[in-house]
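Explain my protein.
***
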Amino acid sequence: MDEIIINSKKLTQKLIVGKFKKSKINHYYQNGIKPWIIARFFDYKEKYNKTPFLKNIRLLTKSDVKNSKFNIRLYALNENGEPKNYIYDKNIVGIAKKGKKITEIDISKLNIEFPEKGFFIAIEWLIIEENKYEYKYTMQGSRKK
């Protein structure tokens, strides 16, 4: 029988990639009746060898709906540096609390390693009934709502 080497997943160190400050973000993306996806690229750095597994995804959310749901997609990149194939091909559902919050999604159990070419984290807004939010507004120069 050939030799087999098994490495354990070490959780003693952690490294935060793509830091942000909640107070510095003043612009948000919103959707209406059409679903869409927005992504951010994370480039690989040699120092990630010490902490290769992804643990959490943190993002700033602003929701008018209690516990709105969104989907996270992880993409590899193609030869042009654009999102291509899934790194993880199942839904990773995030839940945004009502208000402006830092939303954290634990992905440690998925055992995803940081790809050496980098990768995209994409957020997909879900057009589902429980995310529905209706509001009224008055047109400028009119009394109608």
Q: What stands out?
A: The radius of gyration is 19 Å. The beta strands are 37-42, 56-63, 68-77, 83-96, 99-106, 119-125. The mean pLDDT is 83.
